Amino acid sequence: MKIVVIGSNGKAGKLIVKEAVERGIDVTAIARGENKSVAKNYIQKDLFDLTREDLSGFDVVIDAFGAWTEETLPLHSTSLKKLCDLVSGTNIRLLVVGGAGSLFVNSEHTLTVSDGADFPDIFKPLANAMAKALGELRQRNDVKWTYISPAGDFQADGERTGKYILAGEELTLNSKGQSVISYSDYAIAMIDEATKGNHIQERISVVSE
After folding, report:
1. Pick from 32, 20, 139: which is nearest to 88 by CA?
2. Looking at residue 181, which CATH number applies to its domain?
3. Does the pLDDT of residue 193 top 90, yes or no?
4. pLDDT attached to residue 197
């Protein structure tokens, strides 16, 4: 299996690359700047400059692209569309590092985490941008995509426990009543999904045990 991680210099991207390397998987990293991951195979290129040829030969493309500032939030949609177009009609699977704000909090799937009264206003633009990108992704029947949402409390420097609960479209709490996962445990879940590929054209979510 050959995996490529786009946005490999980000916090999530680096840990996803590390997890893949430690499992002996053939992984290539892609980012704009110099390689900050542990990947030996590296392509220095902007996501928006990638071609179909750049991604041909890979079994799985992992999209760890991130945009956080107000002016760059639309890039969540345009970057995902770009990657979908590159792998459209192929057997290449596209796995997306998603957000938690779009997880549903009711069985009717009409209310999301970001709709909650206690959801911080400062994070709503990001949550809305990522939810919009997910909605557009759901329309892509020409792509073998999987969108993986983390728990509500997504901890960059959290502990690697090696365990997680695989869930679906709804916000799921662990045995302690928490919605939390570390970036390291999320990376485990991401590579598990990359190697097993059980959720084509689905959004799944993960939370620590």
Report:
1. 139
2. 3.40.50.720
3. yes
4. 84
